[in-house]
Amino acid sequence: MDREISFAIIGGVGLLKNNGYEKMTISSTYGDVECFIGKTSGINFAFIPRHSISGPHIPPHMINYHAIICAVKKLGVKHVIATNSVGSMKGHPTGSFFIPDDFIDFTKGRESTYYHDQTVHVDMSQPYCPQLRQSLMSALQEKKEEFFEGTYICTEGPRFETKAEIKMMASFGDVVGMTGLPEVILAREMKICYASICTVTNPACGMSNERLTADEVVSVLKKREKVLFDLIVNAFLCMDEKKTCICRLAKDQACL
């Protein structure tokens, strides 16, 4: 790249509604990734859609998470905020925001590491960058947006969860989604600071009397897209430039 990319957003295609993006393809040994370069408040940023723009919609269990994080690394980006849609298992209001501070991985068939020929135990005691999380929460407080913190549970998808599964998972975590893992783990292996801001789109399956549909999820996301984008930009602009987290040291201090 012949220009500095200050930060990256990984998320849904709705955030591409703003004009002026430059499309590019980033190749790696894990595959090609669509990337869109934009500019806001005088700084360049990258947006990487998980579900594809030019081709068919990619379901959560088929997303090439390894290629996405490789693309972020190739762009020279050190800070990423991911957007995720989640169902609430604790009664959070639809349309509110959720900032994960931990996760539980209930996926089944996803490779969760770049290291297949050696044993690397990367520290995940703080899986989400505390500095980025604080910036997001400060932006939410400034805009007087309702938000919550807690544990994100990731399931394999693409089906929604059963009532029994939600009942079990509600004893472990707060919200449930399908796109958060293994992305956060791979970012840590690549020494990238990573945080997530989730939009609560619905009560988790079995938490209400109504049948859950994908259209319901999309409808809530569309209503919150502009607010979400502005929050992310404000979080990056207000972030303390002094590095205080240890995200980039997690692999160096790993047990080999």
Automatic annotation (TrEMBL):
GO BP, sorted A to Z: L-methionine salvage from methylthioadenosine; purine ribonucleoside salvage
Coiled coil: none
Keyword Glycosyltransferase part of the UniProt annotation: yes
UniProt entry keywords in alphabetical sequence: Glycosyltransferase, Purine salvage, Transferase
Residues at the site labelled Important for substrate specificity: 161, 214
Annotated catalysed reactions: S-methyl-5'-thioinosine + phosphate = 5-(methylsulfanyl)-alpha-D-ribose 1-phosphate + hypoxanthine
Origin: domain of life: Archaea
Pathway: Purine metabolism; purine nucleoside salvage
Residue intervals of the Nucleoside phosphorylase domain: 47-233
InterPro entries xrefs: MTAP, Nucleoside_phosphorylase_d, Nucleoside_phosphorylase_sf
UniProt function note: Catalyzes the reversible phosphorylation of S-methyl-5'-thioinosine (MTI) to hypoxanthine and 5-methylthioribose-1-phosphate. Involved in the breakdown of S-methyl-5'-thioadenosine (MTA), a major by-product of polyamine biosynthesis. Catabolism of (MTA) occurs via deamination to MTI and phosphorolysis to hypoxanthine.
Misc. comment: Although this enzyme belongs to the family of MTA phosphorylases based on sequence homology, it has been shown that conserved amino acid substitutions in the substrate binding pocket convert the substrate specificity of this enzyme from 6-aminopurines to 6-oxopurines.
HAMAP family, alphabetized: MTAP (MF_01963)
Name of the protein: Probable S-methyl-5'-thioinosine phosphorylase
